[in-house]
Amino acid sequence: MKSNALLFKILLINLTVFLLSSCRKSEDKPDYPAGSQENINSWILDSMKVYYYWNTSLPAKPGFSQAPGSFFKEIKNGTDRFSALVNPDMPETYPPSLVHTFGFDWITLQNSDGQVQTVISLVVPGSRAEDTGLKRGDVIRTINGSIPVAGNIAALTTNSINGQVVVLELEGKTGVTTVSRLINTEDPVYTYKVFQSGGKIFGYLFLNSFENTALDKLRQAFTYFKQKQVQELILDVRYNPGGSVPVAATLAAMISPNAREGDIFVEYRGNAKAGTRKSSFAVEMNRVGAGQWMSFATASTYRLGLNRVYILTGSHTASAAELLINALRPYIAVIQLGQQTLGKDMASFVIKDYRSPQIVPKWEIYPMIFKLYNSAGKGDYSNGLIPDLSADELSVLPLLAFGDLSDPLIQRCLPKPLSIAGGKKADAVQDVPKIIYDSRAQVDLTTPGLTVARMY
Question: What residue stretches are annotated with the PDZ domain (predicted)?
């Protein structure tokens, strides 16, 4: 482990020297004035030459005089959906996100008869949206006084975000619901519970990101699962856009009954400069931030003795969530249920101007750097991971709260359908409606997703 760390430091020194030297004046590249678009774009290109997975496909003579955002789009590989260039001082470099502004998302559906309705698909616990009474499954009649239809829902979304307030009329509720912007910290673990079915005890956990802040709640959830002697685990990541590799490794160590500290969790394959390297559970878990770190030995004490794990996925499941599914397969039977995932099978880390003094302040690059594979060498899922069992949450409407046992994805995990106390909670839909707008799609493309420590 020490030799690997030394190798990473040597690589970092060598490649930093390369990057700094490449920024200097050369015969074919003038010394652009600091702060100019040409200077910024030159730094972007030099950085991408070192780190970018597709560095050999970068154009030889791009247009350095254009705006950095346009320049970045020009030099990106045509198959790259996820690399990003952002500037904290330029909001336009962060495409608008409904959930990050108000704490909820909506989708617009069209049924086989052409009827259109917009419904709340997700509400962040503890957000102002939840405080106002919004619930997943609520049907929206008007948004800021306008009836949402296919032709205006995108504009209504953008205008609401830009205005920092949204006024909704909801079916079955009198008056209006007003939600204003509230910046708060999301707890990635929305809910967890235990129930019985077919003579077995099931644990259910909804995880919406792999941020370090999830670890305390994961500890609580697995402690509860052990107390209740859970025999089957359902992990719901249907809306999870990703996050930290170390957090994913920690959760995998808690789930798998067979993985050992030195076993390989992930294999990174980069460009010719980065090469290929395999990283164990212990190495990844050691990268968790100070104050939230959990040793492999500690993580293993939360294990439930599972023979398999059910993982619920959707078209928004991405990045570290996909990595977890793929990385667990060599160590435990994984049954993926739901829909095909997004296909973000790569990792990145943030690149800033590390020179002193900085010549290109503020700008940050999130390039795709590594392709990801599991300990068996399996990867290449850029088209998404295909579920073992298909299920569509829209086959039952209205949309149910996460963890509701009538949810069609949960029902698909069970040995036999459950009889839910209180009667029928939702109606089965014979023809599953088509999604014609999904505000969550913005999160898919704007969230950095799976992030790793700088390894070189």
Answer: 102-145
